[in-house]
Specification:
The structure is a single chain. The chain is about 45% helix and about 15% strand. It has 17 helices and ten strands. It has helices at about 1-10, 15, 25-30, 35-40, 45-55, 55-65, 75-90, 95-110, 115-135, 145-150, 155-165, 200-215, 235-240, 255-270, 325-345, 360-370, 380; strands at about 175, 180-185, 195-200, 225, 250-255, 275-280, 300-305, 345-355, 375-380, 390-395. A seven-stranded mixed beta sheet has the order 6-5-4-7-8-10-9, with helices on both faces. The protein has a three-stranded antiparallel beta sheet with strand order 2-1-3, covered by helices on one side. Helix 8 packs across helix 9. The longest helix has 24 residues, at about 115-135. It starts with a helix and ends with a strand. The relative contact order is 0.10. Residues about 35-40 have low confidence and may be disordered.
């Protein structure tokens, strides 16, 4: 357990803020199927997730306990992990968790901080039932104050986001195989021969909805585009579900070289690297260097726009730390520029599908205004259990 605590530390906020590898330590990076299949062993991923999920209650608990600034500041990360583990883990006795955290503290920060960690852990153990009762009575305590204020006029979004955040993920990984079979599989299945792609149930439902629309109103013959494709799960899902015509020329792009590399690795793992042409293309950035030779028009285009990620908080709870108002300043403008360019490349009669991993009303209204229509799809409307909160639109180019 001590080793798991120490391995989890680099992924927590204070450590990431001091790390040159911060961009590679986000949950977006570690939650792909390779990591989930064993690279983060011994419950490390669970420790990281639950630490972020209980971040807001932890801050309240720390203020009640002391509220003083810690030295080194990174010690707060270990206390955050311990708090989340004590409130969420039942199989390991609480006193054992506290003892292991003390030993991890000794190794990472020296003996001087051990007494503080032990005292905070014991206090958390003594108040565990009270904390769980508080969160049961008022789940919104799991959300930071800034987010509660931002969504104050949307209580349903607040309530569902909080419930999902506090619901512990069940064992297994939702995924599909080459035949389009979608199921929850053990992590060990990803180490075996065969093609599996991890995907959230909300994204799988989105692909089913796209399939329904394409069958009901087939786009004309021509090239297909996944504009913001990395790591390629949605494109592979469309192929596995038989959505894409056999003779369609496929293109997949992304704005960052590292993500294009990840996309190519994933396509190669599925044997689709020759079927799909990949390229670095920063849609909406007229000044970007582009090495691709994309078709002038596409019969089908999917634009999974960059966004706040507010619909993915149950799997990406590190996003709770964002300054969302500041993030929106650049994100909304980028969405506008990407949509303008992609939409201009859709052929007459062609289909444009636009999606957001967001339930934020500002973002949803923004894209609705750009497209001139309300959303056609919401994953939250289709599933009761925890899934990504996705929003999507379908537009046929009438020009």
């Amino acid at each position: 357990m001590k080793a798991a605590l120490l391995e989890a530390l680099p992924f927590l906020p204070r450590h990431r803020a001091r790390s040159k590898r911060a961009s590679q330590l986000s949950l977006d990076d570690i939650l792909d199927d390779r990591r989930a299949s064993g690279e983060l062993a011994g419950g490390v991923l669970d420790l990281v997730l639950m630490a972020y999920r209980y971040r807001a209650p932890f801050e309240l608990a720390w203020r009640e306990f002391s509220g003083k600034s810690l030295r080194p500041a990174e010690l707060e990360d270990l206390l955050q992990i311990l708090f989340g583990a004590l409130l969420s883990r039942d199989r390991t006795p609480g006193p054992v968790l506290v003892s292991e955290a003390v030993e991890a503290t000794r190794q990472a920060f020296g003996p001087a901080a051990c007494g503080l960690v032990n005292a905070f852990g014991r206090k958390t153990l003594a108040t565990k039932d009270a904390w769980l009762a508080k969160l049961e009575a008022d789940p919104l305590l799991a959300l930071p104050a800034a987010l509660r204020e931002r969504w104050s006029a949307h209580p349903a979004i607040l309530a569902r986001s909080a419930r999902q955040l506090l619901r512990r993920p069940e064992a297994g990984i939702w995924s599909f195989d080459a035949g389009g079979s979608f199921a929850k599989r053990e992590a060990t299945a990803f180490r075996e021969e065969g093609r599996l792609q991890a995907i959230d149930p909300g994204s799988w439902d989105l692909l089913g909805w796209i399939l329904e629309r394409v069958r009901a109103n087939p786009p004309p013959a021509g090239a297909w585009l996944d504009a913001c494709a990395a790591p390629g799960g949605k494109l592979l899902g469309l192929l596995a579900r038989g959505t894409v015509p056999a003779d369609a020329e496929l293109h997949a792009t992304d704005a960052k070289f590292r993500r294009v590399e990840r996309l190519r690795e994933n396509l190669a793992r599925w044997g689709s690297e020759t079927r799909v042409r990949t390229s670095l293309h920063a849609w909406g950035d007229a000044k970007a260097d582009r090495s691709d030779e994309l078709p002038a028009r596409f019969a089908f285009a999917l634009a999974d726009l960059p966004c706040s990620g507010s619909g993915t908080l149950h799997t990406r709870p590190d996003l709770l730390d964002l300054d969302w108002a500041e993030r929106m300043i650049s994100t909304l403008d980028l969405q506008k520029r990407i949509l303008a360019e992609v939409r201009d490349r859709v052929a007459p009669g062609g289909a444009l599908f636009v999606s957001l991993c967001s339930v934020d009303p500002v973002e949803v209204d923004h894209v609705s205004g750009l497209l001139g229509r309300a959303p056609d799809f919401s994953s939250w409307d289709r599933r009761e259990e925890t899934c990504e909160g996705l929003t999507a639109w379908h537009v046929t180019n009438s020009r």
